[in-house]
Amino acid sequence: MKDHSKLDFQTKCVHSGIDEYEFGSVVPPIYQTSTFKFKSAQHGASLFAGEEKGYIYTRMLNPTIEAMENAIAELEGGYKALGCASGMAASHTIFASLLSAGDNVVCSSAVYGPTTTLLTTIMKKFGVETTFVNTSDLNEVNDAMKPNTKVVFVESPGNPTLCISDIEEISKIAHANNSLVAVDNTFMSPALQNPILFGADIVMHSLTKFLNGHADVVGGVVVVKDEATYTLFRKTLNQTGGVIDPFNAFLVHRGLKTLSLRMDKHCSSAIEIANRLEKHPAVKYVSYPGLKSHPHYQLGLKQHIGHGGMITFELKEGLEAGKILMNSVKLCQLAVSLGGVETLIQHPASMTHFSMGKDAREAGGITDGLVRLSVGIENVNDLINDLEQALKKVNELKPAIESV
Ligand SMILES: Cc1ncc(COP(=O)(O)O)c(C=O)c1O
Q1: pTM of the full predicted structure?
Q2: Most Cβ neighbours (<10 Å): which of 59, 263, 349, 400?
Q3: pLDDT score of 403 more than 70
């Protein structure tokens, strides 16, 4: 693999993970095979014994998947990466590898809903206890640390409130307690934020979002900093089986090439939309890390180089008005997920964060009226016009809302 360390991130997006391939193929070929033929019985035995390097079986390692993993490890500044079947499989790989019965996890209270549920159901069933705290408040993180806390799991910006947690300071607190820090970097992508630079030990992504960027893949990835963690995680992934498929890995690798360009557009459009929404009379508040009104604006400037494509906001007339808005948009599509080229709008309390239950949502600041927007790469004026015509409908239907 060539040394790309001196190259700019834009160039790395195009070239990372790319090696010399058979027939001079410029892109990694799709090795859509479940298994690999051994040259001899001895060859097979020595591959299994780890005496020789090579491919055995796709659940264990596959060249197309490995090319994507190498690319993402390089973009995140990690040692190696592991391609998983989904973002949830990535989180599960982290928890199942590092935690045993009797251990504790400290986790951000504003995280993707099923991450909470994974910890409070499956991991709990195996004897792992979780303390959910507002990780934007360092005192809360400090107070939550226990001798048996093995992992601090941070999502920053948090889904969907977009609150920001100080990865550098949290890493110091965790390391002083001999705990590891894992960061869900899905909302920012390595184009905007590299948690490892701030001391995090593990980074994960839902590849389904910005890294693939085209809403046609479900996948996940875990990036680690050292060989021992990589070996441990690879064993877990091999045994639990939640690996990504070669074709999906190929698509993600293709998506990575335009990551930098796409993130620039997501960011420039999102700030324009956030500014417009903030001034709109029907809007109660807007949460976007690039707005000066965001409570963690300064921290964001330290930690990421762009503020991302995600906006959350609440309308003055609450949930009923939000429903009218979501039913009235024509260009923005009413769908969960995020990070694709097309703009999506959704309602976290009844959709992505429904499984958490109301109490956990309230603890994470996820109010019933909150609407989440994933800003795509369409022309920004078209998006603003669409949102404005939908907000006009909210205004027209205000008397109907008041009678609800
Ligand atoms: C921040 C975040 N992390 C993890 C996930 C889970 O990813 P997946 O749906 O690929 O399992 C999501 C999904 O929306 C997410 O938004």
Answers
A1: 0.96
A2: 263
A3: no
The yes-or-no answer on residue 143 being catalytic is no
Reported as a single tens digit per residue, the pLDDT across 160-198 is 999 999 999 999 999 999 999 999 999 999 999 999 999
Burial of residue 373 (CB within 10 Å: 0-12, 13-18, 19+) is: buried
Cβ 136 under 6 angstroms from ligand 1: no
Which residue out of 184, 201, 245, 386 is catalytically annotated? 184
- Atom 6 (ligand 1) nearest CA: 87
**Cα–Cα distance list, 56 to 14, 22, 36, 342 (Å):** 28, 19, 5, 38
Atom of ligand 1 nearest to the CA of 337: 14
Nearest atom within ligand 1 for CA of residue 111: 1
14-61 pLDDT, tens digit per residue, is 999 988 888 999 999 999 999 999 999 999 999 999 999 999 999 999
CA 329/CA 387 separation, integer angstroms? 6
Contacts of 40 (CB under 8 A, 6+ apart): none
- Per-residue burial over 39-63, b if 16 or more Cβ lie within 10 Å, else e, is eeeeebeebeeeeeeebeebbebbb
Q: How far apart are CA 356 and CA 105, in angstroms?
A: 17
Summary mean pLDDT of the chain? 95
Is 112 annotated in the active site?
yes
